[in-house]
Design goal:
Number of domains: 1
Shape: globular
Order of helices and strands: HHHHHEEEHHHHHHHHH
Low-confidence stretches: none
Number of helices: 14
Oligomer: single chain
Strand order of the largest sheet: 1-2-3
Strand content: under 5%
Largest sheet: 3 strands, antiparallel
Radius of gyration: 21 Å
Distance between the termini: 36 Å
Helix content: over 70%
Structural class: mainly alpha
Amino acid sequence: MKTFLSKYFKGDSVIWGVIFLLSILSVLAVYSSTGTLAYKYQEGNTTYYFIKQGLFILFGFLIIYITHSLPYRYYSRISQLLLIIAIPLLLLTLILGTNLNEASRWITVPVIGITFQTSDLAKLALIMYVARMLAKKQDNIKGFKDTFVPVFLPILVVCGLIFPANLSTAALLFVTSWVLMFIGRISLKYLFGIVGIGILAASIFIFIAFQLPEQGRVGTWKHRIENFISGEEDSNYQAEQAKIAVVTGELIGKGPGNSTQRNFLPHPYSDFIYAIIIEEYGLAGGIVIALLYLVLLYRAVYIAKRCPGTFGTFLAIGLGFSLVLQAMINMAVSVNLLPVTGQTLPFVSMGGTSILFTSAAIGIILSVSKGTTNEKINEQPA
């Protein structure tokens, strides 16, 4: 069995283990938290979402296997193609995207009717592209025109297109890109300069939006932040129900499938799945989940340190940091440390494109790990 696993599942074995544990927990948590959804849409067939999530997880493992089998150098060229595809899709989403809660985040594929969240593709493409550019520009990393502008311009465009409909994803992607540029030795004066530019641009956008009769997503952001700061009882129904789930979970929880807040908490299978996990598995289960993500980040950094070339280093750190930061934001929202953001728990929350692109990111990290093990020579991205 050990020989079989090492032959077909290459790369960091610890990451494989973390993903396997998260996938088991994902299926159990989604099955437990979708009872109300099943009675509303599937005539009480509670196994429907269990099977659906299981199939997504299996397909996710297939994507991990395919992406980890491809030498990581190839992702340098692939990042260019994905970015060229992602930017028009983001623009199309803003104009013609499926609107939900005053936000156009999805494109519905005609005929088959599948919804596709374009920001997931854009996030993966941008991190890969920034890693590529930083690796190629290391000989002139302090330059402004030749280095900073080519690296920063795609970040500005992608984050700017995501921002109107999905502030939290735009902020997460911007922070990840900033950290990558910091690690890539971009001049600090440029890095702090873009923080100022980002704050100024966001302020102008919000100011203009407030002058319009319909405030749209800006009004939603304002409402969430005001409710979070005020801390008034019942000021935010989602946050209140999540806190009840966390408190009643106590140390060891109510046991799998015994959640009561899943019947009251909106989206217990996606945005607030961590609260349901704590309710059923207790504080101990919540800590284990957090540790699994921290182990994932630690292994990504470990892989990056061992990588012989800069592209693989930036790739592993960027993708690993992005996944773990998203997980920490989701968990912080569930325990009321942050306002509601809408970020899912990577590879755990119920979802389609989220799981698939998370799987691709994990597969790429494993590809870097596999390449680090097999290759001891310097590399340059294509």
